[in-house]
Design a protein that fits this description.
Elements lengths: L8 H7 L4 H35 L3 H35 L9 H13 L3 H21 L2 H9 L14 H35 L14 H28 L4 E4 L3 E4 L3 H31 L3 H30 L3 H19 L6 E4 L9 H11 L11 H8 L5 E2 L5 E6 L5 E8 L1 E2 L9 H7 L3 E2 L1 E9 L5 E6 L4 E2 L7 E2 L9 E3 L5 E6 L2 E5 L7 E2 L3 H10 L4 H4 L8 E3 L4 H8 L4 E2 L4 E5 L2 E12 L8 E2 H4 L3 H5 L11 E2 L1 E11 L5 E5 L5 H9 L12 H4 L6 H14 L4 H6 L4 E2 L15 E5 L8 E10 L7 E6 L10 E5 L9 H10 L1 H10 L5 E4 L3 E5 L2 E11 L7 E9 L2 E5 L2 H9 L12 E2 L6 H22 L4 H21 L7 E2 L3
Parallel strand pairs: 3-29
Antiparallel strand pairs: 1-2, 4-7, 5-6, 6-9, 8-12, 9-10, 10-11, 13-17, 14-15, 16-17, 18-20, 19-20, 20-23, 21-22, 23-24, 25-27, 26-27, 27-28, 28-29, 30-32, 31-32, 32-33, 33-34, 35-36
Helix pairs in contact: 2-3, 2-15, 3-5, 3-7, 6-7, 6-20, 7-8, 8-9, 9-10, 27-28
């Protein structure tokens, strides 16, 4: 016999089995890996908790967490118990194996193999199905909270007369319970069937009975439970018809019952409910009869009924009753859809007025004077001039402005409100002199200041007239906290408040440093916190860097939309957060919506598709959060603010009547402040949100009519026109501007848009909503409907006229010579004395200038078009008379107290300017134009030098 230690078999045995040292090493590595995974999971949980605590919304975190845990354990345990009990019961009901057939002999090997591990196998199977079921249930935390906290809408659906809350809050939870019941019944049936087969209760090839009496009874009860659940499903399907979506050939997307639903599907579901109840009773009766004959017959009858009653009969009704007279049959149901959709989207009080589209007076002087009274036409397009802000006010490369600036209202020194284009000078990490971990996260941590400009004016060079500028920013906004630690471009984390000083800003005297003194962010004094964030951010240096010390805090989740969405995960966030200076602080204002997909009869819309336009196509940051959400109810129920310095998030109840918001406020108490807490200073900067307006205007393309017959005919379907200013296939964005509609007495800050007929380019309607919450009619939608008997030019046609006018086309060609590029601004539409005034700024970007400057303004009114240097000049030409106000020519006028030298220099500037314009008109003579421009620059420079100790000259548009 060979020696065990040195024979041929000894080494093979040792080679096939690892040594004790290797086994110890493997166990150690396994334990370390398990600990690393556990700490990684813990780090995610711990950092989330710390963040919610830092923003004082820890109740949101704990409520959500405990709800998920509760659902996970309750439904996980229920599923595990159900499946485990049925496996145990099937095993207990196994028959004695006296006669062993070939089939049973084959199975006997498996029975013997699992016999020692039956308990562990049972626990493993039940644990697996329990984990899956629990995870699925935990994802339904919103559904549970809405069901348990739901409040009444005090509105009933027109078919079943149930409160809308039943469809919005109750029905989704019942459907989840039903789905869980089906999954439990099916898994139990499969598990019991396999166990019965393994232990001989079910036989496939063995002689004699195919199923034992015990197996027959057990499986029949499970099938009876399944069919009972199907009966409940048929009953709930009746109510589901009220929120069912379908395609309707005459109206497109459709929600609610139609004629065939009410007269075929509804009675069919009721009949199938009773058939399923009878079938379930037959299955339960098998406990006593021990035969499958009646249950199988009943089940076959149910399937046949589902085909004939639930499928064939409705098709016959649709073919022979509805189609021959569709409008008459569908009209009552269309009327219900019209009413519900208008209520669900808040467009039921829209005021539609007939508008002639033609001026009612020939008095050109009167029309010219009415322009200023009707609208403050904004020639600074916030979606074009961002590069101009960037070039003139960036100051340092590590600052940047958003691609699309914002429009707001600010009070001037003389007490008048004016439309203002503004943006924050935010941090731009791409412009940091040297990118490294310290610079990116410790030294360059924030932006600085607001830059604002008049929306209705430009200076003599086509640049914005800044009302707040420079670094630090100074101007009309007064004194305010200028550091911007939270903004739309701030997407990375910063560590502040510790030993490492931050770059505050730079001026002629050099860099200024600062250290963050706010209480925002999470304290990193605790080693556990540092370790957790090192793992969460995948940055080991956080754990040992000397730049982190006493007082260090980490700031993250820094964009306004992210912060609001995190503290209120039950809200849908508007795509456009905008800044405002309120009570000495920069506040980001974020509009938020409550939505539902369960409003009976209201047609659905996909938020991402409905809110898309030419701006969101080029700037994803302006896209609405939860883009693919399908909803059929929406309210702007919450106004939120995020402090740009401290990051503090405040939620204010805006729509006190919204039952969805009331439900969430019950679920998350003390998270939403009452509307009364909104200060007057903040109220002055709130506005009607763009995304809600875009959803409403899309619905109003069809739902502006209130008559079912007209709706069905499709004769008055509108469309939102494509953006004509950039030849885009995307919808034109809505525009903010101060204006007054024909039934208003004074201008109101408004949000406006236009409509064209479906498939045509002429104008069919103009829509505006009062956007100033201080006005009595805030949120009131007004539509001016143009006559169908005559045509009024729409935006695309107006743009085409601009481009095809020979003199305009020639000037455009000259402006775009060389490397220059012409850019069209927002094409604004303003109702004026029965007609429609269009105005569009034209910018030129080129040569050594890398930013657009306003060069021309296009204006048209009732076929008369002007293309001039300033808005006032264009208006004067269109109406043939000069306005009573001095024209905003962009040239300078000497104030009364100027010196003779200044007056003479400004007169020379005016002469040079006039000479340049004359040179453009005659020929053009480019040599003469160049000489005139040089003379103009020399004269202005001389005037500026002479006036250095006198008040700044005012522009004629001031």
């Amino acid at each position: 016999m060979p020696d065990r230690g040195g024979g041929p078999t000894g080494p093979r045995i040792r080679a096939g089995r690892p040594s004790r040292r290797v086994r110890t090493l493997l166990v150690t590595l396994g334990v370390l890996a398990a600990l690393a995974m556990a700490f990684t999971m813990f780090a995610g949980f711990w950092t989330d908790w710390l963040w919610y605590r830092s923003v004082h919304y820890s109740s949101v975190f704990t409520t959500t967490l405990w709800t998920k845990i509760g659902l996970f354990f309750v439904f996980g345990v229920l599923m595990a118990l159900a499946v485990g009990f049925n496996i145990w019961l099937a095993h207990r009901l196994r028959p004695p194996l006296s006669a062993m057939s070939m089939e049973q002999q084959s199975l006997d090997r498996y029975r013997m193999g699992i016999a020692p591990y039956k308990t562990w196998l049972l626990l493993a199977v039940t644990a697996l199905v329990g984990l899956i079921a629990g995870a699925s249930a935990a994802s339904q935390w919103r559904t549970w909270l809405m069901w348990v906290n739901g409040v009444s809408f005090h509105q009933k659906d027109p078919q079943f007369h149930r409160d809308v809350s039943f469809y919005a809050f109750d029905l989704p939870w019942y459907r989840f319970l039903l789905a869980f019941g089906f999954a439990t019944a099916i898994l139990s049936l499969i598990a019991a069937g396999l166990t019965h087969y393994l232990y001989g209760g079910l036989r496939v090839t063995s002689p004699g009975s195919r199923a034992s009496s015990a197996a027959t009874g057990h499986l029949s009860v499970l099938l009876g439970i399944f069919v009972s659940l199907k009966a409940i499903a048929y009953w709930l399907d009746r109510y589901g018809l009220a929120v069912k979506s379908s395609d309707f050939k005459t109206t497109g997307n459709w929600t609610g019952l139609r004629y065939v639903d009410a007269n075929a599907y509804l009675p069919a579901k009721t009949i199938l409910f009773f058939i399923a109840v009878i079938c379930a009773l037959l299955f339960f009766a098998t406990l006593w009869r021990r035969t499958w004959q009646l249950p199988v017959i009943g089940f076959g009858l149910m399937v046949l009924s589902a085909v004939l009653i639930g499928g064939l009969y409705p098709a016959i009704v649709q073919k022979f009753q509805v189609q021959p007279n569709e409008q008459a049959k569908e009209a009552p149901y269309v009327q219900k859809n019209l009413t519900a959709t208008r209520e669900a989207y808040g467009i039921d009080h829209t005021k539609v007025s007939e508008y002639s589209g033609r001026s009612s007076t020939d008095d050109k002087t009167k029309l010219r004077d009415q322009v200023g009274q009707t609208s403050s036409i904004r020639i600074m397009d916030p979606n074009v001039v961002s590069p101009t802000f960037q070039q003139l006010q960036q100051i340092r490369n590590y600052y940047g402005f958003p691609t699309n600036l914002d429009v707001d209202r600010y009070t001037t020194k003389d007490g008048k409100e004016q439309d203002t284009v503004l943006g924050l000078r935010e941090l731009n990490l791409a412009g940091i002199p040297k990118n490294n971990w310290i610079n990116d996260h410790f030294r360059y941590t924030h932006g600085y200041g607001v830059v604002a400009a008049k929306g209705t004016e430009s200076d003599d060079k086509g640049r914005p007239v800044f009302t707040e500028k420079n670094l630090p920013s100074k101007g009309d906004l007064g004194t305010y906290q200028q550091q911007v630690y939270y903004g739309e471009k701030t997407t990375t984390y910063s560590i502040v408040g510790g030993p490492q000083k931050e770059i505050d800003y730079s001026d002629d005297e050099g860099e200024k440093t600062t250290s963050y003194t706010g209480r925002s962010g999470v304290n990193l004094d605790n080693p556990l916190n540092r370790a957790a964030y090192a793992v969460a951010f995948n940055e080991p240096q956080i754990l040992y860097s000397g730049a982190i010390g006493k007082g260090s805090r980490v700031l993250y989740n820094r964009t306004p939309k992210d912060r609001v969405e995190s503290v209120a995960p039950w809200l849908t966030i508007d795509g456009d957060a905008y800044p405002a200076v309120v009570d000495g602080r920069i506040q980001w204002i974020v509009d938020a919506y409550t939505t539902s997909n369960g409003y009976p009869y209201a047609s659905r819309t996909t938020l991402g598709d409905t809110t898309a336009d030419s701006l969101t196509a080029n700037n994803n940051s302006r896209a609405v959060v939860a883009q693919q959400n399908q909803v059929n109810y929406i309210r702007n129920s919450v106004k939120a603010t995020v402090d740009a310095y401290t990051g503090d998030v405040k939620l204010y109840q805006w729509d006190a009547a919204d039952p969805v918001l009331k439900t969430w406020m019950k679920a998350f108490p003390h998270t939403v402040k009452p509307r009364a807490d909104i200060s007057p200073a903040l109220m002055a900067h709130l506005r009607y949100p763009q995304d809600l307006f875009k959803v409403q205007r899309e619905l109003l393309t069809r739902y502006h009519v209130t008559n079912a017959q007209t709706f069905l005919s499709g004769s008055e379907v509108w469309q939102v026109p494509n953006d004509p200013s950039n030849d885009s296939s995307d919808s034109v964005p809505p525009y903010y501007l101060s204006m007054k509609m024909p039934d208003q007495k004074q201008q109101v800050f408004s949000l406006t848009t236009t409509f064209t007929p479906n498939g045509r380019d002429n104008l069919s309607a103009f829509m505006a909503v009062d956007s100033d919450p201080r006005a009595s009619d805030y949120g009131k939608i007004r539509i001016l409907k143009l006559p169908t008997s005559t045509t009024v030019d729409g935006p695309k046609q107006v743009q085409s006229q601009f481009n095809s006018e020979p003199s305009i086309a020639e000037t455009i060609s000259l402006l775009s010579r060389g490397h220059s590029q012409v850019e069209y601004g927002n094409l604004l539409t303003v109702p004026l004395d029965g007609g429609l005034l269009y105005a569009e700024p034209v910018y030129v970007r080129g040569g050594t200038l890398k930013y657009p400057l306003l060069r021309k303004v296009l204006v048209t009114y009732e076929g008369r078009t002007a293309f001039e240097d300033t808005l006032d000049e264009a208006l004067d030409k269109v109406f043939g008379v000069k306005g009573s106000e001095p024209p905003s020519t962009g040239t300078t006028e000497p104030p009364a107290s100027t010196s003779p030298t200044v007056r003479q220099a400004l007169e020379d500037a005016q002469k040079a300017y006039d000479a340049g314009q004359e040179a453009l008109k005659s020929g053009p003579d480019w040599d003469a134009y160049a000489k005139a421009q040089k003379d103009l620059q020399d004269a202005l420079r001389k005037a500026e030098d002479a006036q250095s100790k006198v008040d700044k000259p005012r522009t004629s548009g001031d």
